[in-house]
Amino acid sequence: MATFLPAITLRSSARQGNEDHLTEPVDAASSWIQFVMLVVALKLQLLGNGFKVSNARLVAGLIGAAAGFGVTVTGVYLIAQLRTAQPSDTYLVLVIGGSLIVVGWLLLPVLIFGVDESIDPHKFALLPIPRNRLLVGMLAAGFAGLPAAATLVISVSTVIPWSRHALAALVAFLGAILLTMLCVVASRMITTALSEVLRSRRIRDLLSVSGLLVAGSLVLLQLGLPSMAQLATREFTEQLAGVLAWTPLAAAWAAPYDVVTGAPALGFARLAIVAATIAVLILLWGYALRRSLERGAAMPGNRIRSRPSHTTRMESSTNTLAPWWARRFLPSTVTGAVAARVLRLWWRDPRQRVSLLIIPIVLVALVAGPSIAGLHDDVLVLAAPGIGTLLGLMMLNHTAYDGTALWMHLAASLPGRTDRAGRALGTAVWAVPVVSIGAMFVCLLVDRPVLLPATVGSSVGTVFVGLAFASITSVVIAFPAAPAGANPFVSPSGGNVVVVLQQFLGGLVVGLLSLPIYLSLGFALWWQPDLGWLILAGAPAYGLVLLRLGNRIGGRYLDEHGPELLRRITPSRT
Amino acid sequence: MSTDAAHRIHPHGGPDLPETPPALALRRLVKRFDRTVAVDGLELDVPTGSFFGLVGPNGAGKTTTLSMTTGLIRPDAGTACVLGHDVWDDPITAKRLLGILPDNLTLFDRLTGAQLLEYIGRLHDLDRELARQRARELLDVLDLSDAADTLVVDYSAGMTKKIGLACALIHGPRILILDEPFESVDPVSAATIRSILRTFAAGGGTVVISSHVMTLVEQLCDHVAIIARGRVLASGPIDEVRHDDSLEDRFVRLVGGHRELGEELAWLRSSRP
């Protein structure tokens, strides 16, 4: 099968390495080059084979490549436009924009877990390859990829604006090469160093939560943007650039400007900063790689033997399926059991915990922030039903979070409607009170208690609509979710574009279905506050009708296509 | 070839067994994945009360066959009956009789061991208290009581197998279908599992296990089927299948593909400095 090919490549590379060692000390340089070529070829082959796995992945890869190409072309075009600008302007733009690119490379492995670790150093651990050679090979493999190519093209294109000055253009070119190396080396080093930290499941869970929370709280930054725009005067930007230009983030971008302004020595000093940083990073990386290889490959899941036994009281609370507080809400039926498990998972599964924690962040970002800033706009009450819709969006692919464990539902021949109803109930048990409280909080914040019934009713309504839609989508358009316990750095690449498309379309439909609720809330908001009580009853009723329908459709689909669904949400072996 | 037209041959049991239908009756099962044929018109009867071993080389179609028998993979053609109930026409009755331990599929591993067992018990419509009580007993017997409050995701491979077996047992099935139940299980736990399975079989239950380990199959099973390339090569009481040979020799001869090393790999023998 296609997935075995790389192994064959690997083995042949090992044998070649062996023969080099054993026959005679061939020209060292040529064997180095041979090894580097092999690793790069392996990386490209892995990329290619990845596309062979499924058409969806191929399409996703093509869209990703097109997007990368588009970004690169746009970047080069914009940089080329700087040709006619003042050198000092060019300098500012390149330093600020360029720093962002480097920061992106540094954050990429931390924030987005899809970082490609296809050339995993541990897979080479058993082969007789000197570590330095492995280091160079992995570095070369790091260059073989779209991000590095795009960075190289964009940074080399800075030669264009400096082309009127020959030496500056040369410095820009050297800087571009160094900068790309810096980006690749830094991201490799961070990946290797972090994979060390990520051995324990607990830390992995924690990091996946905190990483996504950081990404989520970037929403909060939006609030600060207007004030930041005021801050960003020419003077301030110049000061900032002046500082950045001495850091590895922007030193390479700033160097040509020094040459143009008649201080070539300064420019070369900046290049030296970048080169020295690369050297230090390579040393650190080599160290991290050695530590990581000597400790052996990360095992799936850290084996923690049972914790010290709990007291009887503790046992009764952790040992039962339903949390103590929810026990009285959840029936002791099969539906109740499914609901209890789903409820547990909202906190236990890091992927869902992120969704859970994002809700207060969004609420604060959308409502509390503007209110504190003195904006008391009634429109803000629309944020409360927005939470319900958001929740529905988060659950578009909810079933796939179970992964292959879904077989247990099939093996128990759980009726599809019970499965659907249990999942909806398990979420509604916490979501309905939470959005109700959120809705009250928003009404009080904007100082319109009259709107309370309408806001609470519509928020609960949107929760039901979201659940109804998720009931259908999470079986009909399900796709494999990244496993909760997996090392986030080895997560399967590709497929993300398809996911985004599905999320987008799903969001559109959820929005349309919730439209009546939003409209009636708007009606109450601007025209007839008396309608509130009607909405308090009507919106949840509307949502419940949809939910019933959704459970029926999703349930029937599950009954008819259970085994196919199981196969579809099974992550493909890569 | 003729397999496409072969659905609905013996809908229930067949004429040769008028009284009790066999525990499992697989008729002309076919499954293709893309272009590879994983199971190719497979026919198999597992007598009620037998301890049945399914052996075959890698990629023989063991797991696919068992998955089609347990309702996890839909066959392209053919039928699978459990005590006379078709798994695909009457899944609720058929699956209630089965206890399943698949290989390579995860459990709901973000639950603790005790919670997982309670959950599976309740999925099978057991009363909440009964499910908890059985969960406690199973954890105790399988020596997992210490780990009852540990998330299953943190279990070792052997512990995961054991809790999976407990999940298969909790609703009191009549037929156990276990895919590689002894893989990565330590010898002490393996002995426990063996005695559980023997007790189950002695009480009239049927056990079907798949394994690579011939000696284990010889030791445990009274019936065996050898599968290769999606077909049954031999099946029946273990003494009939192996004749006077050991099961392993018989297996290798039936499956083929083994070759004695002649002059190949000569370089492997020459020791280098």
Automatic annotation (TrEMBL), chain A:
Alphabetical UniProt keywords: Membrane, Transmembrane, Transmembrane helix
The keyword Lipoprotein appears for this protein: no
Transmembrane regions listed in the UniProt entry: 58-79, 91-113, 134-160, 166-185, 206-225, 268-289, 354-373, 379-400, 421-442, 462-485, 497-519, 531-549
Presence of the UniProt keyword Transmembrane helix in the record: yes
UniProt-recorded name of the protein: Transporter
